[in-house]
Structure formats: C-alpha cells, structure tokens
Task: structure prediction
Amino acid sequence: MIAALVAEATAAWPELGLADAFAEHLAALPEPAALRAADYYLAWACGCGNARALAILEADHLAEVARRLRGGRLVGDEVDEVMQRVRERLLVGTADAPPKIVQYAGRGHLRGWLVVAATRLALNLRRERRPEEGDELAAGIASPDRDPELALVRESSRDVFRTAVASAIERLEPLERLVLKQHYIDGVGIGELAALHGVHRATSSRWLTEARDKLARLAREILEVEHGIAHDELASMVRLFDSGLEMTLRGLR
Result:
C-alpha cells in the first residue's frame, strides 16, 4: 500500500526526490490508504521546506488561487496582500511549530484547500480594511449569489464540505446510513420510513433526526481535524450552501 502511494506521488512530482523520506513518513500515519497521494506529497514536501516543492506550489497552485480571488470583489492591492498572508500563514514555520500547510490531511484536493484558506483570509482582510462591510458580509453569507466573492467561497468549499460529509457517512451505523439514504436520496417520507421499518412514525422521525445530528457533528469534526478549519468558522462555511447539509446529502448517491 505504501509503495503504491509513493509510486503515485513520485510519478506526479518526480523532481522532488524525496521518495524514501516520504515512505517513512507514510509508514507513521494511521490511515495512509485514504490519502490523495500526489497532493499530500507536494504539501508534505512544502512543509519540509523543499525548494522545488515550494516553486511548484507557487506556480501551479497559488497562481490559480490568486486568479480566482481576482474574480471576486477584492480591489487594488488586496489580492497581493491576501496571497502574502497565505504564504506567511501556510508556508512559514516557527521555532515551536511547522508551517501550517502540514495540516492539509490529503483527503480533498490541495488546490481547493488552499482556495478555502485564502478566501477566509480575504474575508478577514476586508473586515479589517472596510469594517462597515463586515457585519453586512456576515449577515449576507447565507445568500452568496448576491456577492461574487461569496459565490467563490461556496464553490471552492464545496468539494471539502462534500468530502467531509461522505467521510462522516462512512462512520455512521448501518441503520443511520440507511434512513438518511432513504429519506434524502430516495425521497422516502417520515410515514413511509415508519412503515418500511415497522415502527411508529415518531420513532422513524427520531431515528432520522438523531442520524442527521450525528452526521453533522462528525462532519464538523472532520472539517476541524482533517481540513484545519477553525471551530468558529464552521457555521459560516455550512451557511455557504443553499440548503447546507441536506443539499449535500441529496447530491451523495
């Protein structure tokens, strides 16, 4: 398994020359099989300070992040300021901690993870420079179609959010997964669920509520732990989607 991951990663980025060290790193991970090997290899190499990896990230990923930000409502030098903050936040370590890019868990696309991080920093910058827009921005986050930048956040976050929900579903009990699938994907109502499972309508309603609440809790934990999204930012991220968790569930078939 580790050999296959190393082969996939080094095939994508042969110029990094870190195959042996990467294999040792993978061997110390609890669940390496779930990684997006090429993306994780690049991020890990950047965290190690590898100059070639940093150059690739700059040319292939950060340039695209900046391009997407320019499609939003940032003005003047704001994109340059945000990208500088991205580099400082993710690529510069301290005496006590490695660069924060090592928090990338390799579950979703690296570029999407970077766009999410950059857009959060862009929103912070806007609040700093134009505080009169801060409250309006926070209040309007549930309606991103009114704001091109918020639409960007929603689009760039979608894969991360869906990946977290899909991973959370795998951690549910079989009955919990079944009732969620029947209700959200197959369109089975509460009464029909009760009849299918031979229980009272109140019981099927409780099952569905408990399964959904558990799924939301697990998804939030995954977003925090595996994607490095701070707890106080999760609610805003969830509100970026038209119907939040329910919409995502209906798209997972």
Remarks:
- The CA atoms of residues 164 and 219 lie 5 Å apart.
- Residues 1-129 form one domain.
- The first helix runs from residue 2 to 12.
